[in-house]
Design brief:
about 100 residues; mainly alpha; about 60% helix; globular
């Protein structure tokens, strides 16, 4: 799947939450080094209104190395205020891991 990472990441630009969620589920299967160049786009999914997409994005973000996450910590911390308990929990896990 790694050779197709760019095409999968492009699906995150879709306005349909189901497409974005599916793309994130595929990305979650990839190695951290493959995901690292796309960290900003993945973190950008935290701004999507659908909580399932935000939760899936946080699950992918959990795989990234702390050095890759460092510039995005603010966006992750904001998720601690999310009213969806799953998003809140996933954000806590990311911050504990980094």
């Amino acid at each position: 799947m790694a050779p197709h990472t760019g095409a999968i990441v492009q699906r995150l630009k879709c306005t349909h939450p189901g497409v974005c969620h599916s793309a994130l589920e595929v990305l979650r299967q990839l190695e951290p080094a493959v995901l690292a160049p796309h960290a900003g786009t993945i973190v950008g999914q935290l701004e999507v209104t659908d909580p399932h997409v935000r939760c899936a994005a946080l699950q992918v973000i959990q795989q990234l190395e702390p050095a890759v996450l460092a510039p995005h910590v603010g966006a992750i911390v904001i998720q601690l205020k999310d009213t969806d308990p799953d998003v809140h929990c996933e954000a806590q896990i990311v911050l504990v891991l980094c």
